[in-house]
Amino acid sequence: MATNKKRISRRRFLVRGGLGTIGILAVGTYLFRSNIRRGLAGIANTADTPFMGNTKTPIIWFEVTKNNDLILHSPKVEMGQGTFTSLAQMAADELEVSMEQMRVVHANSSSGNIDSFATGGSTSVSALWVPLRELAATMREMIKTEAAKKMKASVTDLEISNGIVTAGSASMTYADIVQGVDDWDIPDTPPLKELKDYKFIGKPIPRVDLKDKVFGAPLFGMDASMPGMLYGAVVRPSTIGATFLGADTTKAEQMPGVVKIIKETDFVGVVANSQIEAENAKKKIKAHWKADKNWQTADIEELIAVGKGEAFVIQKEGGPNDFLEDATGLIQSEFKSPIGAHAQLEPNGALAFVEENKATIYMSTQVVSITRDEIADRLGFDNEQVNIVPTFLGGGFGRRLHTPNGIQAAVMSKAVGKPVKCFFTRKEEFQNDTFRPPTHHILKATLAENGLIEAIEHNVSSGDVAFGSPMVPSIAEPILGADLGAWRGGMIQYGAIPNYQAISWRVKLPFATSWWRSLGLLANTFAIESFIDELAVKAKKDPVEFRLAQIQDDDRGHRLKEVIKAAAKKAGWTNKVINERAMGFAASTDANTPCAQVVEVSIVDKEIKVHKVTCAMDPGIAVNPDQVRAQCEGAIIMGMSASMHEQMFVEDGQLQPTIYGPYQMALMKHAPKEIDVVLLQNSDVPGAVGEPPLGPIAAAVANAVFKLTGQRLREMPLKLA
Amino acid sequence: MTISLIVNGAPQTVEITDGNTPLLWVVRDLLNLKGTKFGCGKAACGACTLHVDGEAIRSCSYPIKLAEGKTITTIEGLGNEQDPHPVQQAWIEEIVPQCGYCQPGFMMATAALLNIIPEPTDADIDQNIINVCRCATYYRMRKAIHRAAAIQKETTAKTKE
């Protein structure tokens, strides 16, 4: 996202205080709106920003509370990635307040600075790196100017620390200073502090949501409640491609606790007094569906084969075709990855309350503005009449980029005139997911006489990832052709190879596919980095040296080399099998963040056992190194889960399995006992963190298994023969 | 039907029309303790783990009619900021949670494990902690479980002195 290039202009920065509220200041700007309206800002008299009815009311970034805490209204949602903490650090450092004074809440769509893009793509911290600090610095200067007036001192004589401004022996808190101010002086955007002067940025500050999460606070969409709330349940299809025809609800109507049966053209549901009554009544609804075809796994595999879809060359250097067509000594391999489920623990759902002229929706969503627009559209409301109150997400991973469940809750609430909470069952989550598409890869290469790669080609065939998503404008499709999500990680990163190309084959699948943490990176890196290992073996070269020898001399290449060297060094890399343990190596570059991993693997009871993972990553500035490490640790194990255990099947038109357990995932017993993360910083801005470390793990494990057993595992999930 | 039970130390009486209502919904919706989570409804993920008479139970599949006279502890009753349970203290020190949704279930499962095996080995942990965490915080959770055992041991030793 290019948002970090935009600057705050003075004209967009108008701030007011007062109006009878005490000690609260809000700073606002339409920083992320493409249709930049001139700014406003204003007032909120509680920590919960009230529903204000339309976006002509102020956009709130910060509030000063009566007890001198600072509340940041985050335009990015917190789904575990630690963004709230990093943003709090960035704000606190420029605002000169302590971390203890800093609180973070989700901006709601009525009064907050909601993001017209989404929370996703590992962009939250990088996108806000400059603008958030500039806002905080501007607010600090405004407070100082006001303090100088109130304290009858010169601005240059003021000292400022922990939200307290001192002039000689006098001092005032921010809360005192902002009281009753109606007319603020807005300075030009002040220069930002130097990195070395930051107290919090770059430090392993504990998560701001840590205690709430440890003591069981009601943070999530599922936890939201309102007085008089009823419970909804919607009948969802279990068959791929099913169209809703209608439903017989006579039996359901007579069930205890039923308030109303909801019959719409696109769904049928029930509203009842309790969760169990809603579920019981739903079971009595006979919904009628029509599906054209009884899909099977084999049908999907046939569809997804390279050569079947539409091809787009996404990368080309030199003349790879001259070498790869009918070449003697052509090396060729194919790889596969299965359909993957998000399997996030909190099911999708929403609590909606639709009143005559407004709607309030509490939900876990990664696309606050899209959710709002969709619900407003369905209700026939203006966008400004719908207030989305984002909650903490019980896992995101891309699953909450599509939120029609918000519409259903709103429709049901409107029908009964009361708040209605409705969410997916686990079976519905598994069968109505927006899946990670299956992929098929064909790689071809020739080696030059010096043993290095002369030419290489990567073909990836995938279902759509980004296309069809409300976040990606439909105009992107004809312009790009190839799906930008499917090709993530699909290009050749070894720029010193003289001839290379990558080809993306686009396939339309009969079920919904979309963004799954790291998009195509997991499968593409598995295929490419396994194949690179094959080539190194063929060339009789050490796989680490083999990679280093084929990286170009530019900034990107330099950063990739450095993570490769750092991982190898920290792991004590060896290409030998020692005590029946082997190391495997792989590297990837995702969203400009290079990452290399070394795994130590053995075979225990005929199963692949990963003992240790060493991960070197260069995300640039790590605003919170502890949380960057946490993202690496989690991504590594999630990547192991997806590449060694998980797989959805298509059986008689249904996606299966539909429950944890049968949908095998990595558990405690599968997690490596040692994960060693090395962070490099060869870039002076914070880059992507949440997804890049998912790249290398699958290939690293497969490469180690080959060394141990001679078996080249070319299909996820990785299973020994 | 009327069910009497003790929840986090307080006697509670709930009126319920369907005795098969899972304990989870009683705790969450009637008693408004939202720390115990719904994950799957089939006792497969452990997000709903709480204690019934000291034992870790997956409350999504535990009918309320069986809870008559029982003592229930949820994450809200395990400890609080002023007086955290050793497991919660360890979770804070290791900065375990990411999204945090599954974490109460893991902490309740761990607290119950430490009651039976005060100093679990890695193998004990692998065998007994079988909940699902999609953020895959297992690496820090394992460290936190060992740390919780150490904190508990220290606390017990102090109490005896």
Strand-helix topology:
The complex is a heterodimer of chains A (721) and B (161).
Chain A: E1 62-64, E2 70-74, H1 83-95, E3 102-106, H2 124-151, E4 159-161, E5 164-167, E6 170-173, H3 174-178, H4 210-214, E7 230-234, E8 243-248, H5 250-253, E9 258-263, E10 268-272, H6 275-283, E11 286-290, H7 297-304, E12 310-317, H8 320-324, E13 331-337, E14 349-354, E15 359-363, H9 368-379, E16 386-390, H10 404-416, E17 420-423, H11 426-431, E18 439-447, E19 453-463, H12 476-480, E20 499-507, H13 521-538, H14 543-548, H15 555-571, E21 582-590, E22 593-604, E23 607-617, H16 625-644, E24 649-651, E25 654-656, E26 674-679, H17 697-709
Parallel strand pairs in A: 2-3, 7-17, 15-16, 19-20, 23-26
Antiparallel strand pairs in A: 1-2, 4-5, 5-6, 7-10, 8-11, 9-10, 12-20, 13-18, 14-15, 14-17, 18-19, 21-22, 22-23, 24-25
Chain B: E1 2-7, E2 10-15, H1 23-30, E3 49-52, E4 55-58, E5 71-73, H2 75-78, H3 86-93, H4 103-116, H5 122-128, H6 138-160
Parallel strand pairs in B: 1-5
Antiparallel strand pairs in B: 1-2, 3-4, 3-5
What does this structure look like?
The complex is a heterodimer of chains A (721) and B (161). Chain A has 721 residues and is of the alpha+beta class. Chain A has three domains: 3-212, Aldehyde Oxidoreductase, domain 4; 221-291 and 348-423, Aldehyde oxidase/xanthine dehydrogenase, molybdopterin binding domain (Aldehyde Oxidoreductase, domain 4); 305-340 and 434-709, Aldehyde Oxidoreductase, domain 4 (2-Layer Sandwich), CATH 3.30.365.10. Chain A is 26% helix and 22% strand. In chain A, the strands form seven sheets. A seven-stranded mixed sheet of chain A has the order 9-10-7-17-14-15-16. In chain A, α9 (368-379) crosses α10 and α13 runs parallel beside α17. The longest helix of chain A has 28 residues, at 124-151. Chain A starts with 61 loop residues before the first strand and ends in a 12-residue tail after the last helix. Chain B is an alpha+beta fold and 161 residues long. Chain B has two domains: 2-78, Beta-grasp domain (Ubiquitin-like (UB roll), Roll); 86-160, [2Fe-2S]-binding domain (DNA polymerase, domain 1), CATH 1.10.150. A five-stranded mixed sheet of chain B has the order 2-1-5-3-4, sandwiched between helices. The mean pLDDT of chain B is 97. Classes of the chains: A alpha+beta (721), B alpha+beta (161). At the A-B interface, α4, α6 and α16 of A face α2, α3, α4, α5 and α6 of B.
